[in-house]
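Possible regression after last week's pipeline update?

I re-ran a chain I had predicted before the update to compare outputs. Posting the input and the new output here so someone can diff against the archived version. Not blocking, just want to make sure nothing changed silently.
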Amino acid sequence: MKSQLILNTKRFVVMTTDTVSTVFAYWFAFALRFNFSIPDVHLNMFLSTLPVLVIIRVLCFYFFGLYAGVWRYASMNDLLRILKATILSSCLFFAYIGLVYHLIDFSRSVFIIDWFIIVFLIGGSRFMYRLFREFYPVRVNRTKKRVLIVGAGRAGEMLLREMKQSVRIGYKPIGFLDDNKAKKGLRIHGVPVLGKVDDLAKVVDKKQIEEAVIAIPSLTGKEMRRIIGLCDSAGIGCKTVPAISDILNGSVHVNQIREIRIEDLLGRERVELNKEQIREYLTGKRVLVTGAAGSIGSELCRQIMKMEPEQLILYERVENELYRIDREFGEAFRGKGYVMVLGDILDTDRLRWAMDTFKPQAVFHAAAYKHVPIMESHPLEAVRNNIQGTYNVVKASLDSGVDKFVLISTDKAVSPANVMGATKRIAELICQGMNSEKKTKFIAVRFGNVLNSAGSVIPLFKDQIMKGGPVTVTHPDMTRYFMSIPEAAQLVMQAGALGKGGEIFVLDMGEPVKITDLAQDMIRLMGFKVGDDIDIVYTGLRPGEKLHEELVSQEEESIKTMHGKITMVQSPPVDWPSLRTRIETVLTINGNDPTKVLETLSALIPSDVPHTPREQS
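New output (post-update):
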């Protein structure tokens, strides 16, 4: 309320200023035209037409948004709006004089003089205010931190202006660093470019720099690590700004300087979606998501709700997690069409009830067991959940007449060397095989690890660092693919929109990340030093783990799609009737004989290394 009152007061002051300027400009035009001795007839004309001019000017200024801008950010765009508003208002006023007074007893030169004066007054008042704020910012009684801006591009310039103008940012910009040699020695708003990024340590020592802010939103993960390393060596802190695309679309501001996150070190580009294609796929449709409260499932649900489906059905078996997401959606999507369903994908009756009751047109199957070592120890549970569960959802979708079914798969399904990967590969094969039956289009989407998902290394490393270490890494050479949860969810929706049925899509995961590098980065980002504060300990590969994952097997062919971040893979054809019989045989296994399960899985999916489970529930 207080901020709105302040805003309304400011707008009133601006409108009052413009009104006074309009009156003065009009009077001054008459005064100049008649050498400051205005005849009575023209003075009467001035007084009788003044109210009309004021109304026309204010309405035109409002129409062109002159009261919606912020004076201290006045720019060339604002000047163009001022020119358009004054030209239109002058033309309308001229038309009024012509229609009502037929231009009798009215000097035509007044129009021209008035226009020049009003442009000068309206534009000048705004730019003078900006000039005053830049050279005489509001003073606050606090010491500002001496900061170095890394990057003298557009984001760096925007950040500098915000630092100079804002009373909330406690930074004093001392200089820029930029690897563009042509910029060295130049000044941006009076602040010099002091050298290249590699000169950081020298500049820090010479200028008593306390902190660096990276203002290069397009940096790769490798370049970000290099700058962080230079800051560490120089003994100063390091922060960054949001992505320039987010700044430009208004979702964040350049002054929202923040700590560097692990996502920044991946250097992943912003996902560009074909929203029209996704809206055609999901808007106004009934959509069901299994595993709806999990890491991927819940983010999928958030992204789907933004597409305004007719109804979203969140199908989840974990009561506490369903309660949590229900609370979240109750605040974020109040009044929107969604429903929570507590149910298990192994419960065929519950599944069919949900399908018959809500009649979804699209299904995203995210429910699965994903933890490799635990699935190695419990292969029968992996088969039940990942194969039987998928089979149940697939059959229920077919019987219910679902239009599209999207399976969330994994890179571990490629040449699987563990139980989890084998079960997910079989789930892919089920979708491909079932695609030939009835009208439902089945699509699988394959990708690697997602940051901060339940059971991933990021939460584990954070917990270990907070406890003082050590951070445990299985092998010094181990690598994994990573992407953020929102990125994965958005691309899954895009792949679902692209799919025509029977495809396996692979998301662009970028370059694989060395887990040791990830651990070292996290230790540094949390304010500790590797070795001095927190040790890294190598524990050896766990059952079922590979050193390196892959997204496409040697037997598969990669095919580009219309979306640069999504690739389709062509797998060798399979004898689906025979494979279906063998899969159904696997599903009949019961009891506590893990060896039999492993033997059957190996026959279905040749694995690199057969593993013997240590225990079985």
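Follow-up from reviewer: compared with the archived run. The chain is about 50% helix and 15% strand. Marking as no regression found.
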